[in-house]
Amino acid sequence: MAQVGYLTHLEINGFRSIESTSLELKPLNVLIGPNGAGKSNFINFFRFMNKLLQKDLQLYVAEQGGADALLHFGRKQTPALSTYLRFDPNSYSATLIPSQDGRLVFKEEFCEFFADSIGFSGGDKKKALAKPGAEESALPSPRGTIEGRVAKYIADWKVYHFHDTSSSAPMKQAGELLDSDRLREQGENLAAFLYDIQTHNPEIYKRIVSTIQRVAPFFHDFILAPERHNDSKIRLRWKHKGSDAYFDAHALSDGTLRFICMATLLLQPNLPSLILLDEPELGLHPYAIQLLGSMLRLVSQSTQIIISTQSVSLANEFSADDVVVVEHRENRSTFKRLDTDSLEAWLEDYRLGDLWEKNLLGGTPA
């Protein structure tokens, strides 16, 4: 039975600022655009889908302020939210409508299986899932089915943002030692996750450490061990080069800590099926941004990547066909992949970010 491929085509209708969009996706996708254009809404749609497939839809809708807060200008203008996702050789689609009490409920939900994905000699198969009025998705199904594989794939989409590096940030506190299956979305379990990699994948751990050292030459290594007085907990500690002193995460600069999270995420041994990052360049030194771009390009050969950025320096690290320009026009977000042919002459003399800065790509404040 064929594995689920990466997401090749996406349609979103009626989600926040996204009235309607249809977009072809690639292994690496870089969203550029000004504040308020809709980049974050695009990325948050994937969080919405992740919650939907984990059967946490109603909790998510309530946390976001109800159905009208998610629908494009509310139910008076947008009576339904719909999506179509194509991951060859299968697809998933759903339409949701608002209830009187502010929930989003299913109008319809389908998985479509194309012939070669299930071994049939001809024809396609479309299977209805959630019944009209259902509050949660009918996925996941048993693992052995195509529906189950689709559900597992979407549930493994991870939206990361390592913006909170305040003194009370979870990544700076003691965490559960056994919380190491997946790096959490805000790096809350960074110490436990690194400890697991160090224990089971020492070569990958060494690669993470050496990558961090390229940005932070003073950094020698992590000191990862269960807490002395509570061996079910672990805290991020590290050692300075040329010193026997140990430090905790509070002694790291915001940019260094964010880069540690980024390197751990992108160099880990078991990557999510799709990684989404909202403005990963925040607080990073220009050299760290350059190294981040290199890692993103490399990792996109193994898993799909979608990022949003406002950094000219980070945009310089990518090819024109990686880039999607996001703009806000006539009260809606638009998404357009760059026309590489029309930029060919310009790119002989300028880098991509430089062209963006010169307002030759769009994606700048009107």
Automatic annotation (TrEMBL):
Q: Where is the Endonuclease GajA/Old nuclease/RecF-like AAA domain?
A: 7-51
The segment(s) forming the ATPase AAA-type core domain are 185-314
GO MF: ATP binding; ATP hydrolysis activity
Instruction: Give the GO terms filed under biological process for this record.
Output: DNA synthesis involved in DNA repair; double-strand break repair
Q: Which InterPro entries match?
A: AAA_GajA/Old/RecF-like, ATPase_AAA_core, P-loop_NTPase, RecF-like
What superkingdom does the record give? Bacteria
Pfam families per the UniProt record, alphabetical: AAA_15, AAA_21
Check the record and name the Gene3D superfamilies matching this protein: P-loop containing nucleotide triphosphate hydrolases
Task: Tell me the protein's name.
Answer: DUF2813 domain-containing protein
Which organism does this record belong to?
Vreelandella populi
